Structures are given as structure tokens and as C-alpha cells.
Amino acid sequence: MTLPHCAQASPYEVDLQEGQKIFWCTCGLSDSQPFCDGQHKGTGLKSLCYTADATKKVWLCGCKQTKTPPFCDGSHEDIES
User: Fold this and answer.
1) What is the pLDDT of residues 62-71, one digit of tens each?
2) pLDDT band for position 51 (50/70/90)?
3) What does the pLDDT read at residue 76?
4) b vs e for 1-23, b when ≥16 Cβ sit within 10 Å of the residue's Cβ?
5) So what's the pLDDT on residue 15?
6) Which of the pair, 79 or 81, is modelled with greater confidence?
7) What gap in Å lies between CA 15 and CA 5, rounded to an integer?
8) Do 9 and 80 form a contact (C-beta atoms < 8 A)?
9) In whole angstroms, what is the distance from residue 80 CA to residue 41 CA?
């Protein structure tokens, strides 16, 4: 597998705390979306580590096509149309 699977054609709303470290799923196969659970093994993809710079609500990409990982940039609109 070289291209990620679209887990959801919309973003995931997540509340993060300053300093919180997350591992965002890049393959789209994780059962704990949008977070990695290791299902990428053997796909050639790996999770993306992100540390929150502030306490805030964010929208993490669900379609896995974002150009600004791990954040949604609207790329899912191309999938939905």
C-alpha cells in the first residue's frame, strides 16, 4: 500500500491540551481514528507525531489527503464531489 485509505471524508474535531503529544494516523486503517493504533505496519506508511502548542480545539484530517498534516485543509471536498 502506498496511498492512504480515506478513513472519513470529513475532519475529526479534537480538543488538545498544551504539550499533549498525539500520533495521527496517516494510513487511514486505524480503528481509533484519527489516532494511530499501529495498523500501518507493512503499508510503508508511519504515524505522524504532533505536540500541541496550545490548549485548543483542532480539526484533524480524516481523508488523509491533507497538505497540512495532521490538520484538515479541505482536501476531503475533492473526495466528496
Assistant:
1) 999 999 999 9
2) very high
3) 87
4) eeebeebeeebbebebeeeeebb
5) 98
6) 79
7) 24
8) yes
9) 28
Helices (H) and strands (E) in the chain, counts: 1, 4
pTM confidence score: 0.90
Nearest 5 degrees, angle CA 12-CA 47-CA 65? Answer: 55
Say whether pLDDT at 6 is over 50: yes
**Chain centroid to CA 55: how far?**
18
Report the distance separating Cα 81 and Cα 72, nearest Å. 17
Please give the angle made by the CA atoms of 46, 48 and 53, to the nearest 5 degrees. 170
Short-list 38, 46, 40, CA closest to 70 = 46
| Other CB atoms within 10 A of residue 59 CB | 15
Identify whether the C-beta of residue 71 lies closer than 8 Å to the C-beta of residue 12. Answer: no
The Cα-based distances of 47 to 29, 33, 77 in angstroms read: 11, 12, 23
